[in-house]
């Protein structure tokens, strides 16, 4: 949290505000645990051991499968870049503008629907909602391998965006309802690192599948879509048994473990610990919160850069030297692998230091340096090194920004709506960046690299600095007692419902 303000509060107050204690005797809602604590009477060491085992159980049940789902999701939305360099555009007789339009249309449906999907996720339950949308986007993906013209590809990409819209904001929201704020970042980073792995794995997979060119009368790019779509359908069906529900409904928890999860969330001052009915008040509360907009600006910077990079890196590498398409696919692997490792490292560091803003600033500078290299050098080796730095500056900021927004938004539905808006606005940038790398600009791609550099500099870095300063100012006001009037005359339960507007809720920096 805010280390510079430690002198402004006592150690006991600091411990409570940071949510570092699991003992609800120090929580504003301690009555929940005092009434029915499965670990009452145990020593602190015994409680800590039980807590570690519970956390490990949650990690094993939730993280691996959800990460696999996002790997598949990102692979399916970006494999069109791999398909392009093995003949997609030529076989469908598309102009450069039409190809870019086929990228753009995905982001229109994808971004517009995202703010609504978290409400549907909560209403239908994750174990129902996520498998259904996976099955549907697997069907859309398979159909992309069966199209014969530009119109067919456009229709398939539109519905792919509709079906995929619920996964990323849904999982981010879902995981935030299981973990404390100081634990969420590393889990979100591991989950999102699947996107970098997808970029790496996608290049290898596309290179292998493209060798099926001519089998069954199908081109290599058609087989990329068909086989990856069928795999998505299979994984979607399996998800009916592998995806779990929220803590109050998850079947893999014992009754005692359920109470422990709720206790941990309550100690962290999270309303996720309780069942909450949807009201439009939560929707409007999100829209009135300035953090929704600053987070959206930051996410706009990193997400716009992400899609530009992931959609076009095979083409960029292919233009550096006269590589074969297969070699270009393989050379796109290492930048993604390095980005995946750094994403997890940043998630761990941000959780431990509670300095998510500083972490965002640091990786932003790395990404800015990478795209300066792509813009300023004519040497293939320097440009290839620039793709490494570009990936390292973009991927860690995605999960870190979502964790930052989630940490500072309290209330089950308010957080869900906020994440939907933030992620939806970020993904809408795909409509812009899918048109900035034009065939006419190769091999330098100056306009494309320049736009991404602007996104990183103005939105990702500039937005991070702005939000960081504003959060520090607000924390100081709360520590000085200037916000105490917000809960005057309210009882403990009413004050608690104020969520992140409670004066004792200290924002993560």
Automatic annotation (TrEMBL):
UniProt keyword list: Membrane, Transmembrane, Transmembrane helix, Transport
Region of interest (Disordered), ranges: 1-43
Pfam families per record: MFS_1
Topology versus the membrane: Multi-pass membrane protein
Top-level taxon of origin: Eukaryota
Compartmental location: Membrane
Subcellular location, principal: membrane
Transmembrane segments: 128-150, 156-176, 188-209, 221-243, 296-317, 329-350, 357-378, 384-405, 417-437, 449-471
Biased composition annotated in UniProt, kind: Acidic residues: 34-43
Every Major facilitator superfamily (MFS) profile domain range: 62-509
UniProt biased composition (Basic and acidic residues): 1-26
GO CC terms: membrane
One MF term in the entry's GO annotations: transmembrane transporter activity
Protein name (Swiss-Prot/TrEMBL): Major facilitator superfamily (MFS) profile domain-containing protein
Organism: Helicocarpus griseus UAMH5409
